[in-house]
Design goal:
2 copies of one chain form a homodimer. Chain A is α/β, with parallel strands linked by helices. Chain A has 4 helices and 5 strands; from the N terminus they run αβαβαβαββ. Chains A, B: Belongs to the beta-class carbonic anhydrase family.
Chain lengths: 146, 146
């Protein structure tokens, strides 16, 4: 443990929360397969105001979730290909959100969703159903664009 | 709506779950700032068996979460830099997990965590506290490596 410095406040809080989580970990979650049970992958932003699992009702083991600054489809392509080819997912939801710092004021976020969905649909390595959405950080609501 | 095909079963389920989520969306979550309240960013895998927000007790608005196939630090660098420079996060947890399809049987996942933490610590664009962890998909427990 010589290389491990004292835990920060964040780490102390996380360790405490995780102990509680482990205590309540349901037995049927112990043997979930790696392949997502819903055949679903979500690409979205790293934004702190969006918890996809809560907001979209995603059970443990059901869905691959890829997140990066802006919910970039281009950066997610490697992960999508791995997910589809190695773990048989066949549906992609691309979800950007309101008030995203990656898109300057005045940019049309709907256009950015359309652009990224088009990129994925045109990518030779990506297949399956691909839809595009916007999450509203002020209401928690999602809205389908395409 | 002409461009929008009939919703899949996944989409019907997600829309139903999201309606419920919106109904219960707490008023104090409507005006969360974009900057994560805990100054924290987590990099982890897209694996369906890990829900970081539940497993680590992360409140809405508290933490940036970056996810990709394997929890690649290299692929996360762009997002980390955006997070640190534009939204003032100053702590990074890199979390890989047991039974990860990105690491062939026999690979030492601890070594992969150490390698990725070293990559981030040596990156000229990345700063702050950086620690490395493993999440156990069978128990829900996290363990610190460095």
């Amino acid at each position: 443990m010589a290389n491990i410095p004292d835990p920060s406040q964040n780490i102390q809080d996380i360790i405490r929360a995780n102990k509680e989580y482990v205590r309540n970990f349901p037995p049927h979650d112990r043997d979930l397969p790696a392949a997502p049970s819903r055949g679903l992958l979500i690409v979205t932003c790293m934004d702190a105001r969006f918890h996809p699992t809560s907001a979209l009702g995603l059970a443990l083991g059901s869905t691959h979730i890829v997140r990066n600054a802006g919910g970039s489809a281009e950066e997610a392509v490697r992960s999508i290909i791995v997910s589809q080819q190695a773990l048989q997912t066949d549906e992609v939801l691309l979800i950007k959100h309101t008030d995203c710092g990656m898109y300057p004021l005045g940019w049309d976020i709907e256009q950015e969703v359309l652009r990224d969905v088009k990129l994925l649909k045109g990518h030779p390595g990506v297949s399956g159903d691909i839809t595009g959405w916007i999450y509203d950080v002020r209401t928690g609501a999602i809205r389908r664009i395409i």
